[in-house]
Amino acid sequence: MNSVKLMAWATIGVLSLQPELIDVEEILRLPNRAPTARIPYGDDPLQFGDLRLPEKASATKAPVVVVVHGGCWRSLYNIDHIGALSAALTQAGVATWTLEYRRVGDPGGGWPGTFRDVSEGVDYLRELEKTYPLDLDRVVALGHSAGGHLVLWLGARAKLRDPVLSGDDPLPLSGVISLAGVDDLKRALEEGVCGDMAAQLVGGTPRDVPDRYPKTSPIELLPTGTRQHLINGARDPIVPVAFGRAYAAAGAKAGDEVELTVLDEAGHFELIAPFDDAFIVVRDAALSMLSP
């Protein structure tokens, strides 16, 4: 299916047409509400996930949103800052499985460990289903910033057929939602998005390791065959909205189903702030993608 949808959505303050943007410190201060369970999916201390179940999950199987946090793939930023978003999504009636993973600066992080971790984390839902009431026919992966990159990659990994990176039997996804995702690693390096972290993630520049970028940069993996929804803030100073627009156009040209929503008054962190109006758009995107 070949479609692109662009929606503009604006919130205009009474006193200012340009309200102050939410910054990273405000996000880091959000409480990480305790999950239903913190569960390892591997042997490394950083290979774990936080499972949150909605109140009525015992009566019926719950669809699942896999949440992948960002932070420029750096070990400095961990799972805690996205816990509030995961809790808010769970309150909306879905299970959330929020992944921690090895990042650049962690032993085993970067190439190939980061990719292998998020792959194993998603596929571990098959084990969780044996204990918890989860509907694995309805699973969406949602990620922010560097996590947006990783969920777009997760949506494409079935075509890689690379067990070192993506595992032997990738769990099918109903779709992926990228919030301000770094969807083009080469462009990120050219424009200084997250400095040179994209090169650190894959172990070198495109000149150093040319074979790795076609396996890890989402825009080079199109078409993925997976439904994709990109949500970007028009005022994002970290991952410019031009990334989302270019990816959506490339996805449509390749034949994928891609939807792009641009939030006119949002920056980078509004997209993961459950107290911001942008959360309504994020929540509704997830619920829509999980609809039977």
Determine the fraction of residues in helical runs and give it as a percent range. 25-40%
Structural class: alpha/beta
Specify the CATH homologous superfamily. Answer: Alpha/Beta hydrolase fold, catalytic domain
Number of domains: 1
Shape: globular
The ordered string of helix (H) and strand (E) elements is EHEEEHEHHEHHEHHHEHEH
In total, the number of strands is 9
Tally of contiguous helical segments: 11
Strand content: 15-25%
Biggest β-sheet, characterized?
Answer: 9 strands, mixed
Q: List the strand order in the largest sheet.
A: 1-9-8-7-6-4-5-3-2
Radius of gyration: 18 Å
Q: What's the CATH first level?
A: Alpha Beta
Quote the distance from N terminus to C terminus: 18 Å
Low-pLDDT stretches: 1-16
Overall pLDDT:
93
Q: From the coordinates shown, what is the CATH architecture?
A: 3-Layer(aba) Sandwich
The CATH topology annotation reads as Rossmann fold
What does the model show?
- The chain is an alpha/beta fold and 292 residues long.
- The chain contains 11 helices and 9 strands.
- The chain has a 9-stranded mixed β-sheet, with helices on both faces.
- The two termini are 18 Å apart.
- Mean pLDDT is 93; it is low at 1-16.
Give the arrangement of secondary structure elements.
Blueprint: E1 3-9, H1 24-28, E2 37-40, E3 48-52, E4 62-68, H2 83-91, E5 95-99, H3 113-123, H4 125-128, E6 134-144, H5 146-156, H6 163-166, E7 175-179, H7 185-191, H8 197-202, H9 213-216, E8 228-233, H10 241-254, E9 257-263, H11 278-289
Parallel strand pairs: 1-9, 4-5, 4-6, 6-7, 7-8, 8-9
Antiparallel strand pairs: 2-3, 3-5
